[in-house]
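Hi Y.,

Following your request, here is the sequence exactly as I used it, all 196 residues.
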Amino acid sequence: MAWKNGHKRYLVLCILLVLTAAVELSAQYMLKRRIDFTALYHAFVLVEYPFFAGFLLGAIKPGKFSNAIKISIPFYIVTSLSISLFYYHFKGFPGLNINLEGLMESILCTYILFNLEVTEGRSILKNQYFWICSGILTFFGTTFFFNSVYTYVLHMDGSKARELFVIINGPLNLILYAFIIIGILCLLTSRRFITQ
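Below is the corresponding structure, written out as tokens. Let me know if you'd prefer a different format.
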């Protein structure tokens, strides 16, 4: 709806959310069949940061920081691909890749939150970027440690590791996507009030 109402960059977010849903559903299916699903994440992390960064660039004024974010996209792709290829060999959970993505997105979201334009008479809770960035910071800030040790736990006890993955990542994914949805709803409702 946001894209159809003229917010063109929300198409990028929409595509990312559809890809994310496909990956998560595939991972759940593979998990139930006891098939290693980690290769999906090696592929997905290559597109997740570029899509999020591309979307969030709309919240940043042109300048040095926005140029740095544009440069960070190919840097992340090359670095993440190298980690997957040479360190993980596309096997095992890509915790380093995800943590690198989380670090870069956290820097981006922190910058956006500190530079949100405050409008008198309008609560920050009605700003779409407040919710989207808060969701990203909550997700990556909370999963940072678990992503680092997941591969080791997987080698010690695969079934326990998978259970922990579902227990930890499942609710955090819900929080992230709920915050994104709230952000989109804030955009749509504020647009409606502006036009009335």
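Residues 13 and 169 are 20 Å apart (CA to CA).

Thanks again,
Q.
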